[in-house]
Amino acid sequence: MNPRQLAAAALLDMERRGGYSNLLLEPRLRGEALSPRDRAFSTTLFYGVLERKITLDWVIAHYSRTPPAKLDPEVLTALRLGALQLMEFSSIPPSAAVSESVEVARALGKAKAAGLVNGVLRAMVRGNCAAPPPKDKLTALSVEYSVPAPLIQRWRKAYGHDTTLEILGGTRGPAPTFLRVNTVKTTAAGLQERLLADGLHSREVAGVENALELLTPASIGEIPAFQEGLFHVQDISSQLCAAALAPRPGMMVLDLCAAPGGKTFTLAERMENRGQVVARDLYPQRVKLVEDGAARLGLTSVTAETGDALLYDPALEGKFDRVLCDVVCSGFGTMRRKPEIRYKPLDSLDGLPEVQYNILENASHYLKKGGRLVYSTCTLLPEENDQVAERFLREHSEFFLPCPAKTHIHGRDGLDCDGFFTAVFERKEEPR
Within a 10 A sphere around the Cβ of 228, how many other Cβ atoms? Predict the structure, then answer.
């Protein structure tokens, strides 16, 4: 398949099967002999359509006699790819965007719809892809940012209009690639020199120690410095979360929902690889990811093991100086990296805060007196964040907050990070 056809096939997989975008796209990319440039183009098309579906469908609806919802999925996918190229890719001649989209429809088995695809896209070219905005303000925001209206409404109710606009501004990709320096093996300056020797430019992230932004596009696994264990990839949000735990060399630390291991590795590096970081996850295959990553980085202080964060383990009672509780969540703070998350039905999350609270409550048993427990999510819904933290404090008088819980929003404090939440709890030395 050519890059457009590959992107179309992967998008149809997402429509039919759901799942995670990267897990659907990567196997298809590996299965095709594409040049690096074509691979990048296919990836950009795939994620561009995923991110902009609501916007694209609004424009298509203006030029198509058949509403998008009534079109065959294959035809709608071809139209979305064509519309995206016409609206976002000025370097692609409109005639090429149209003709290649017609070929995508044919490749997807919809040759009879070739005329429809050609006609709609040519009409868009004549109309400069313009479409009147929705009259309703909520719908207009949904179309502008390609985020479902019910989710925007939930944010406006929780945070107000201005903060909602900040949140929406952080839903658009592409997201930068941030690296965490493995300080057990090198320094930030040393890693920058090593990357530059391989033609890769980077810069330090202001306000975040030992964090670099990779400025040159690259396949991470093929970078020699990665293979040598000099860094791992980690968003600024996760690096700040690990910093909030404030681990010190020689401590006993528990990462309760650890896989794939980014925070585990950062904690071990902050501890100078002295002490022990116990990394637990529910599934053995995910535990293996942590083991492999720790081995590549040379972090001998990491012990990875299988364990259910919801089930109390008496062997861990009061054993740890620090406990990280980065719980399963809706993930709405990571939309620019995982654009499919924005379409997750809100009612599918109804039982999630109870699960999150139970994990947090269970984790609290493993902390020593005077120890620190961090509860974190990568979402921006109060029912998964502040409300869970507040309930925990009400029901556990032996804990207190040494500093206010914080909702981190993309762009605030000058940080180009995902949206996330942290609450830092400390266990009193003695009950009062």
Answer: 15
